[in-house]
């Protein structure tokens, strides 16, 4: 974690000078790495319960604060160092799932030992700390030595309850178990189970469901039961002979107990009455029956799926340890294997990689490569001192790269008072054609193009209000005044809809009825009266709800009108009406700018199909996400070539007019390039799981801080786009298709996630999940259009109300849609790659 050396600082400066990394991004990465290390360290540095054999002390320490919380002397028998010997050579670290030995941990008789209780679990104390490669998870710690005589006190074993609330301190020599609170270190209970002088371990299991402790002592046929509240002691003989070690089963309703004599087997008992349910054969012999070992080893994995018992065979060598792995779900032995390294464990632990150890060897180069900021080849070139590439074609100059004019307007605030637009100089001398064609032919929409007096109304403020979920002051005061109503969730904040709301709603209803029936409502006064009346009702509903249902029967010629009108649609209609009134002076040009044929009042050329920038299209384009051709000259395309790791721009004749070669950028698999208002490119890198903002020379100006949190991490992203959430401001939001994580999300340049749909890393086909999405568009209807390719559907999702529409296989015969676009005329274009 030390990057203060001169070589590291020089490398940082070179990367920044060459434009390979952004300074703020690099600083953010380093800071994130430091915070991640400290967070993991904090999770491991919990409370340590330590036995010091030399000082004969029990110490409780706060590892995070490096302070002693509690300590006391432990009773001990007088002995000399030669009176003690090991009954095992090492602590075995077992594989979490298979139960095989993964590593061995050496120890000494005089070495302090204990358990660490942390956020990440309970594990064996290792004096090497962060240098240890593995953490040995276990709720028990046995002392690995035995006394040659008959001590009246010691040695001591430690056990922590599964809930972490109790510590059992077992004195083998005294035959006493003391129960302490792990929080306060106060003694709860102290029970004497046998006369002093014993050498066998006091095996125990916490039966928390019945608030008791189950104990065996290696020399009797009974199980002792201690009530953890009252301290009352009772005993039960299950009829298995001499009993050894025991462990609670994962369900808390059964217990595993080793039977030593007359049969060597593992019994599965029902906990409530200690009735034998099943027995499992243990091959070989048990150490306790043949020697001075305090107990036979029995351990359960942290995931509670495997139990491991140790016995021994005389092959290939005498007393070769044999581990039997039991599946706790099936309650049967699934594998056995011998430890042929010549050693014998004195404890079975389960190995978990120490998350702090890699940080000890983590240098700047490793962090750069892991973050995906630069690849290995680029980093090596910088370290060698290779000069940066300088031969770029003139077409790559940023000043020659002109963004679309409408995007430049997004970066400048619009006035709050919008006067009628003045005609362009070349249009001022022209007279409007007799019947200019507009996109919508209904009478209600035709009214938008009629000349009108300027209005003091900003349509973009209406859009902001359509997305605003904060309640009005009136709504807040009403909520405060009615405590009994606060328990009922309000579907939407209360808002003022405006004086023209009823008129706009009436137009919406008329347009929908005309689309369904073919009748023009404006020619039927009685029908319009019914629609106007319904519009008044909708005003009241939509002022407090996100949507309202319309169900009008037999309006005209037996036709009904059944639909749903959303608040968002009303605000859009109001904004569109306000915008179109400011554009009344804009007329259709005489000639097509592409083929120079007469347009004859059409915004679409009837000869070559060229679409002109009409006022209505201009309005919608400012709302939705940018098109792939934004900022490009007419007929030009910006394409990725991921196989050759390059980006190219083609003109209308399919000639390459610009390209960014593989050695000029850091992307491994570039996809979906799109031009930003700044003139830079937003590029998706699927293989590096990253989104970049690249300059025309390949310099990285921005990248998503995927290291900042697990939620920011991407997995095989395939597309990135953007839109301006506030058309009056320059701020952009990036839309990302995180295909490998089965989700789509929206982030801003400050790396804040504003919205996402789908559960990260979880595929599904219900209303909350996606399966390998491939495309995302923010439409001019203020909805998200998602290609859910794996589920064969396209979803239209609104931020507040969720899924509004589904184009699926049942209704549209979709198989694997890969692209969906809401067109300017309101229709939806879907590309189905599987049809």
Helix and strand arrangement:
Blueprint lengths: L5 H12 L5 H22 L2 E6 L4 E6 L4 E7 L10 E3 L3 E5 L6 E5 L7 E6 L2 E4 L9 E4 L2 E2 L3 E3 L8 E5 L5 E6 L4 E6 L5 E6 L10 E5 L4 E5 L6 E5 L5 E4 L5 E7 L5 E8 L3 E6 L4 E7 L5 H4 L7 E3 L5 E8 L6 E8 L4 E7 L6 E9 L3 H4 L3 H8 L4 H9 L20 H6 L14 H4 L14 H4 L12 H9 L5 H9 L19 H17 L7 H18 L4 E10 L2 E8 H16 L32 H7 L15 E5 L4 E5 L5 E5 L9 E6 L5 E5 L4 E5 L5 E4 L13 E7 L9 E6 L4 E5 L5 E5 L17 E4 L5 E5 L4 E6 L3 E6 L1 H4 L4 E6 L5 E5 L3
Parallel strand pairs: 5-28
Antiparallel strand pairs: 1-2, 1-7, 2-3, 4-11, 5-6, 7-8, 9-28, 10-12, 12-13, 13-14, 14-15, 16-17, 17-18, 18-19, 20-21, 21-22, 22-23, 24-25, 25-26, 26-27, 29-30, 31-32, 32-33, 34-35, 35-36, 36-37, 38-39, 39-40, 40-41, 42-43, 43-44, 44-45, 46-47
Strand percentage: 25-35%
Oligomer: single chain
Q: So what's the CATH class of the domain at 41-358?
A: Mainly Beta
User: Sheet bearing the most strands, described?
Assistant: 5 strands, antiparallel
Tell me how many strands there are: 47
Roughly how much helix do the residues carry, as a percent range?
10-25%
At the fold tier of CATH, the topology name of the domain at 41-358 is Lipocalin
Q: Which class best fits the helix and strand makeup?
A: alpha+beta
Average pLDDT, all residues: 83
Please tell me the CATH architecture of the domain at 41-358 by its name: Beta Barrel
- Poorly predicted tracts of residues: 390-457, 469-490
End-to-end span in angstroms? 53 Å
Total count of helical runs of at least 4 residues = 16
């Amino acid at each position: 974690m030390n990057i203060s050396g001169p070589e590291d600082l020089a490398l940082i400066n070179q990367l920044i000078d060459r434009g390979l990394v952004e300074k703020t991004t690099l600083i953010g990465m380093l800071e994130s790495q430091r915070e991640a290390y400290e967070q993991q360290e904090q999770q491991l540095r919990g409370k340590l319960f330590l036995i010091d054999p030399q000082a004969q002390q029990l110490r409780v320490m706060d590892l995070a604060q490096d302070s002693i919380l509690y300590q006391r002397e432990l009773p001990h028998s007088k002995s000399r160092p030669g009176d003690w010997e090991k009954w095992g050579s090492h602590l075995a670290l077992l594989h979490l799932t298979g139960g095989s030995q993964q590593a061995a941990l050496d120890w000494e008789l005089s070495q302090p030992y204990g358990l660490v209780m942390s956020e990440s679990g309970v594990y064996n104390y290792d004096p090497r700390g962060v240098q240890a490669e593995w953490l040995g998870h276990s709720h028990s710690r046995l002392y690995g030595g035995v006394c040659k005589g008959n001590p009246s006190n010691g040695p001591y074993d430690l056990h922590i309850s599964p809930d972490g609330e109790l510590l059992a301190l077992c004195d083998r020599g005294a035959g006493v178990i003391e129960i302490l609170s792990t929080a306060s270190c106060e003694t709860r209970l102290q029970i004497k189970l046998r006369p002093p002088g014993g050498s066998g371990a006091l095996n125990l299991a916490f039966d928390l469901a019945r608030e008791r402790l189950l104990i065996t002592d290696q020399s009797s046929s009974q199980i002792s039961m201690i009530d953890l509240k009252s301290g009352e002691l009772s005993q039960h003989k299950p009829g298995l002979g001499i009993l050894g070690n025991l462990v609670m089963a994962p369900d808390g309703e059964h217990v595993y107990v080793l039977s030593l004599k007359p049969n060597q087997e593992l019994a599965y008992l029902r906990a409530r009455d200690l009735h034998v349910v099943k027995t499992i054969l243990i091959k070989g012999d048990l150490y306790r029956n043949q020697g001075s070992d305090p107990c036979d080893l029995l351990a359960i994995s942290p995931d509670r799926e495997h139990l491991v018992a140790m016995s021994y065979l005389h092959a290939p060598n005498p007393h070769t340890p044999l581990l039997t792995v039991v599946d706790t779900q099936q309650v049967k032995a699934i594998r056995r294997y011998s430890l042929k390294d010549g050693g014998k464990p004195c404890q079975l632990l389960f190995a978990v990689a120490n998350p702090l150890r890699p940080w000890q060897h983590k240098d700047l180069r490793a962090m750069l490569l892991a973050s995906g900021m630069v690849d290995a080849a680029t980093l090596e070139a910088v370290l060698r001192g290779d000069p940066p590439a300088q031969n770029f074609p003139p077409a790559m100059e940023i000043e020659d790269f002109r963004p679309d004019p409408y995007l430049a307007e997004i970066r400048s605030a619009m006035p709050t008072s919008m006067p009628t637009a003045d005609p362009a100089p070349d249009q001022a001398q022209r007279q409007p054609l007799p019947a200019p064609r507009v996109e919508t032919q209904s009478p209600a929409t035709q009214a938008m193009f009629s000349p009108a007096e300027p209005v003091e109304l900003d349509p973009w403020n209406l859009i902001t209000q359509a997305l605003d979920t904060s309640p009005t002051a009136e709504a807040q005061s009403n909520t405060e005044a009615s405590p009994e109503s606060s328990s009922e969730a309000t579907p939407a904040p209360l808002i003022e809809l405006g004086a023209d709301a009823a008129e706009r709603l009436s137009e919406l209803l008329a347009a929908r009825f005309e689309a369904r029936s073919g009748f023009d409502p404006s020619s039927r006064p009685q029908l319009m009266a019914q629609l106007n009346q319904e519009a008044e009702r909708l005003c009241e509903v939509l002022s407090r709800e996100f949507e309202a249902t319309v169900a009008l029967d037999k309006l005209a010629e037996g036709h009904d009108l059944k639909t749903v009108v959303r608040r968002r649609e009303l605000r859009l209609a109001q904004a569109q009406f306000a915008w179109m009134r400011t554009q009344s002076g804009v007329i259709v040009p005489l000639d097509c700018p592409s083929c120079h044929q007469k347009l004859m009042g059409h915004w679409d050329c009837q000869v070559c199909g060229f679409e002109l920038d009409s006022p209505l299209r201009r309005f919608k384009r400012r709302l939705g996400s940018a098109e792939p051709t934004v900022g490009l000259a007419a007929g030009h395309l910006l394409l990725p070539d991921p196989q050759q790791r390059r980006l190219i721009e083609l003109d209308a004749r399919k000639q390459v007019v610009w390209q960014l070669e593989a050695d000029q950028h850091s992307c491994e698999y570039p996809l979906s390039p799109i031009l930003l208002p700044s003139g830079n490119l937003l590029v998706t890198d699927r293989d590096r799981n990253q989104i970049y903002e690249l300059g025309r020379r390949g310099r990285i100006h921005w990248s998503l801080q995927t290291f900042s949190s697990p939620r920011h991490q991407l997995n095989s992203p395939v597309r990135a786009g953007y839109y301006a959430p506030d058309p009056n401001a320059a701020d952009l939001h990036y839309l990302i298709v995180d295909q490998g994580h089965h989700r789509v999300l929206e982030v801003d340049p400050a790396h804040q996630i504003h919205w996402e749909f789908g559960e990260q890393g979880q595929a599904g086909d219900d209303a909350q999940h996606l399966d390998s999405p491939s495309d995302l568009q923010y439409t001019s209807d203020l909805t998200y259009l998602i290609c859910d390719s794996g589920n064969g559907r396209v979803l239209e999702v609104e931020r507040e109300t969720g899924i509004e529409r589904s184009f699926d296989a049942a209704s549209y015969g979709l198989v694997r849609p890969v692209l969906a676009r809401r067109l300017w005329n309101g229709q939806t274009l879907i590309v189905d790659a599987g049809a």
